[in-house]
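Escalation from tier 1.

The customer reports that the assembly of two entities below gives different structure tokens on two consecutive runs. Tier 1 could not reproduce it. I'm attaching the input and our single run for tier 2 to review.
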Amino acid sequence: MRVNFTVNGRQQEADDVWEGESLLYVLRERMGLPGSKNACEQGECGSCTVRLDGVPVCSCLVAAGQAEGREVVTVEGLAGFAKQRAEHGGCASGACGSEGGTSLQAAQQWSAKGTDSQTGEGTELSPVQQAFIDAGAVQCGFCTPGLLVAADELLERNESPSDADIREALSGNLCRCTGYEKILDAVRLAAARQGEAV
Amino acid sequence: MDFLRPASWEEALAAKAEHPTAVPIAGGTDVMVEINFDHRRPEYLLDLNRISELQDWHVGEETVQLGASVPYTKIMENLRTELPGLALASHTVASPQIRNRGGVGGNLGTASPAGDAHPALLAADCEVEVESQARGSRLIPIDAFYTGVKRNALEADELIKSVHIKKADGPQQYSKVGTRNAMVIAVCAFGIALHPETRTVRTGIGSAAPTPIRAKAAEEFLNSALEEGGFWDNGKIITPSIAKQFAELCSGAANPIDDVRGTASYRKHAVGIMARRTLGWTWESYRSGKGRGAEGVA
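Tier 1 run:
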């Protein structure tokens, strides 16, 4: 079947989608967006977390057909999404304005390497991505995309989260390197920077 | 496989009538796991996400009509006053991502003894509204809903529309045993609701029998013990011997198995502990509420 939905603010179309296929599979294998990670396939690990109409969900548990006509934000579009939110305020869908969003090609080529020798420099990052790099919250990196999407959503609705709020918001994201302390540091850092900017 | 996408409740009922083997999918947190792991290859998937009334709830005089697909997050955020037990149970479901998608309809449809909502639904008392194109809608009392391990009273052409849950008329509590707070399938769970209007107490036990159950003997014992002692009126502390007896009867109602999550004997023990604790919490809350009420009158 054919499925149409918005990904990172741009309309996309996937063909020959099997009816039992997950949104995660469509994103990774049909749209070339491997940022959302495939690990447990049962909603335990959170590494496939995306925003579906603004709501954080495990994309492995959304049937592709259920995404029809809806708006998805993946980690590849997080920088553009955060930028748009900062400029236009409060847009949770990632689709404010027809010119917005991240093209599929740009999303496919997205990389944190940038143009400079330093990781992340010269590349557009969302504040939460920059904070993860600065706090050393990335080890093997497999859980990182899901954590970034979840953490970004937390900071969108809660400007100054308590430690309990952060733990709660990230409780559905597992890190097998067990780098949780640095991850908490990163979210605190992003929140503090967000507070300074206001 | 075919993917059916009804745009309305009527269309969904028609699709279910035409294809009784169709598997309804709403939050997908049970169904997609089975598909991802190749445990299930339904001929038809019936997507319920486009049916907006399943996402709605109405707070009435005596009951809350809760749409089958209202996500647990919404229950926690909006219905804590009317459905405190279910709100507490909702908070123990998996993780934020899962709570954003899953709802009570899925718990009832799957009818796993480990579903987190069941003990709260049993304790609060409710009726499940199901509907078919051929016979219209009917209300199934929650006590008659669970018919076996992962089996319920639903006919093949029926869909779960909503749950009519009695609004809390007294304190409710919920307790769950697991290895940690998030992402845990219950080792066992316990729900309790005090109903001062009828001077009764209702319970619900999860993951400790082939189906979710009530501890009826324990309820009957407690109801008469509270009545005899005049506890509902005098608001005295429940004596340790009554609480102990109640806990033992709850434990005795459980009929658990040994599995990877825990042993049968541990589950029986834990049910008793949870029963005693949750009774203490709810009764304490009832007593303090009474005290405040009396002062207000004076």
